[in-house]
TrEMBL record:
Domain ABC transporter: 6-241
Record organism: Ramlibacter humi
Xref: Pfam families: AAA_assoc_C, ABC_tran
SMART domains assigned: AAA
Recorded superkingdom: Bacteria
Gene Ontology molecular function, alphabetical: ATP binding; ATP hydrolysis activity
Name used for this protein in its record: Nitrate/sulfonate/bicarbonate ABC transporter ATP-binding protein
Keyword presence, rRNA processing: no
Length: 438
């Protein structure tokens, strides 16, 4: 039987919402990391990528299923598995050298040996001469070099990277990524498997032998994609651009709603709305409508023009799709006829269309509107809506979802919101007529 470095079968994990109800974050996840493999894990924000990584690092337990490292069940932090964090996670009061030595200390390596190995690693990772510095004296890129050195100094068999480059500027991120790949490809490190969690499709395509896409709510493995282009890869080559296109396509493929949800009499209100705002929605729509796109674009090309990161663009595409203004398919986005009308419209007509689409396609917004119309005062606190959302979302997500629905609804003049009082109300001029129906 093939031995995997990491092997997960039927892994599930729930967290408790603020109300105490369990919320399934990962469900039936089967995943393995083979020897000699770099795998990139992609998925929307909140799909459970970090949770999955933390389970593999032995930092948190799974609720169900099995998790094994080289055939042995994982029951806590595993020697041989090291992690690099997005936030660097350095101890600010320790020097660079001391931070790097930490992992070795935990493994009981003798001080002289620790120092020698840390020195060698600092040299390898481009930090020679910085051993005595404190993290705050370093740039973000240098700090992440320390984070990487701290992980690599333990000679990990498996390296887990949780959005390790996303807090860095683009060039610094690319440089570090290239250096890690060089260390890997030239076998300068003994690491046998790397798992990278990323939001960045180009990063995933440049690094990985295989891309795994996680779906959301709950997180399940949705698709896998093998990349057999040899490294080092040229980001501008036709082969890489075509791969990026395909992965964009896979990422934006809409998943059909579960039959149970679709069959419910009243539309479900308690699902997350894409994390974006009206400004971004209109900016992307205008960009798409204008030259050179004229209403249809290849997503990576649009991303280049938009100068927004993927994690802001994806929810925006999703919002445009949700509102019936654009259509995303196989790595392309195109405006619908209504989207074209919207792009050509002046501000007031835009607001009207936005409000109309919101009521038609976002059940939370129509629910808020209906409940307000049923109130004699035409006003309601936000708590009842938060409680409905918290039936299936955690408190943070419920709050964010309501905020998004409020921002969109105010723009479309579907309802108003008083920030001081935390109260939703019908727009001025409509309140008087509300609540009078028999
Ligand atoms: N300790 C926790 N308690 C309660 N909920 C949690 C906890 N950790 C994560 N969650 C929830 O689990 C879900 C998945 O979170 P996770 O951080 O794994 O997602 P992610 O895909 O890594 O997201 P991102 O890309 O934004 O980092 C989220 O809805 C998050 O709010």
């Amino acid at each position: 039987m093939k031995e995997f470095l990491l092997d997960l079968r039927g892994v599930s994990k729930s967290f408790r919402t603020a109300e105490g109800a369990p919320r399934l974050v990962l469900d039936g996840v089967n995943f393995s990391l083979g020897k000699g493999e770099i795998v990139a894990l992609l998925g929307k924000s909140g799909s459970g990528k970090s949770t999955l990584l933390r389970i593999m690092a032995g930092l948190i337990p799974a609720d169900g299923g099995s998790v094994a490292y080289r055939g042995k069940p994982i029951a806590g932090p595993v020697e041989g598995v090291a992690m690099v964090f997005q936030s660097f996670a350095l101890f600010p009061w320790l020097t660079v050298q001391q931070n790097v030595e930490l992992g070795l200390e935990a493994q009981g390596v003798a001080p002289a040996d620790r120092q020698q190995r840390a020195d060698a690693m600092l040299e390898l990772i481009g930090l020679a001469g910085f051993g005595g510095a404190l993290p705050r004296e370093l740039s973000g890129g240098m700090r992440q070099r320390v984070g990487i050195a701290r992980a690599l100094v333990t000679n990990p068999d498996v390296l887990l990277m949780d959005e390790a480059f996303s807090a860095l500027d683009v060039l610094t991120g690319e440089t570090l990524r290239t250096e890690i790949l060089e260390l890997w490809d030239t076998k300068s490190i003994p690491t046998r498997g790397i798992l990278v969690v990323s939001h960045n499709i180009e990063e995933a395509v440049m690094m990985a032998d295989r891309i795994v896409i996680l779906s959301s709510d709950p997180g399940r493995i949705r698709s896998e994609y093998v990349i057999d282009v040899p490294r080092p890869r040229d980001a501008d080559s036709a082969a890489v651009r075509a791969l990026i296109d395909e992965v964009y396509g896979l990422m934006t493929m809409r998943v059909a709603p579960a039959p149970a949800a679709a069959a419910q009499a009243a539309p479900a209100v308690d699902y997350r709305l894409p994390e974006t705002d009206v400004n971004r929605i209109e900016a992307v729509l205008d960009l798409l409508a204008g030259p050179p796109f004229g209403g249809r674009a290849d997503l990576p090309q649009l991303a280049d023009e938009a100068e927004l990161p993927d994690e802001e663009l994806f929810p925006t595409y999703e919002a445009l799709g949700l509102l019936g203004l654009a259509h995303v398919e196989k790595g392309d986005i195109s405006l619908t006829p209504l989207g074209h009308r919207y792009a050509a419209a002046a501000h007031t007509l835009r607001q009207e269309i936005f409000g109309q689409q919101l009521l038609m396609h976002v059940p939370l917004a129509s629910r808020i509107r209906e409940d307000l119309e049923a109130e004699p005062s035409g006003t309601l606190g936000e708590e009842p809506f938060l409680s409905v959302l918290q039936e299936s979302l955690d408190a943070g997500q419920a709050g964010r979802t309501l905020e998004i629905a409020i921002e969109w609804g105010r723009y479309g003049e579907v309802y108003e919101y008083d920030f001081n009082a935390g109260v939703l109300k019908l727009p001025d001029g409509e309140a008087a007529s509300a609540g009078t129906a028999p």
